[in-house]
Amino acid sequence: CIRDRYQRRVHGGSTIVAKDGKTTEYPVELLPKEKLVDTNGAGDAFVGGFLSQLVQGKDIEASVLAGHFSARAIVQQPGTTFPGPCTYA
Predict the structure, then answer these.
(1) What is the number of other CB atoms lying within 10 angstroms of the CB of residue 77?
(2) How far apart are CA 42 and CA 73, in angstroms?
(3) Higher pLDDT, 82 or 10
(4) Residues contacting 3, CB < 8 A, separation 6+
(5) Predicted confidence (pLDDT) per residue in 3-60, tens digit
């Protein structure tokens, strides 16, 4: 069971995570505008990627990177579909 509390904000191309009164900024690799198709589901995709690593005991940075990967994949597709098998390692 995850008992820690986290708060996430996206601001100016970064994800900011607050935990235990400390904030950490994680830059987001910007996607070229021509690859952006649909932003629906991007936040949910981030949370899914983030939690997939957190529940495996990965640290916050690894979890955020997985969230970025998931959100980046989703926004390049129409609707809320994943492009195929996950290639995140």
Answers:
(1) 15
(2) 9
(3) 82
(4) none
(5) 666 666 666 688 888 888 888 999 998 899 999 999 999 999 999 999 999 999 999 9
Residue 84 backbone class (left: φ over 0; alpha: ψ -120 to 50; beta: rest): left
Give the up-direction half-sphere exposure of residue 14: CA atoms within 13 A in the CB hemisphere.
11
Give, in order, the Cα–Cα distances in Å from 8 to each of 5, 32, 40, 64: 10, 23, 18, 10
Residue 38 bears catalytic tag: no
Contact 83, 73 (CB under 8 A): yes
Reduce the DSSP state of residue 54 to 3 states and report it.
helix
Q: In which residue are the tokens 């008992």 written?
A: 3
Of 4, 38, 44, 59, the active-site residue reads 44
Grade residue 80 by pLDDT with cuts at 50, 70 and 90.
Answer: confident
Determine contact, residues 63/54, Cβ cutoff 8 Å: yes
The Cα 34–Cα 78 span in angstroms is 13
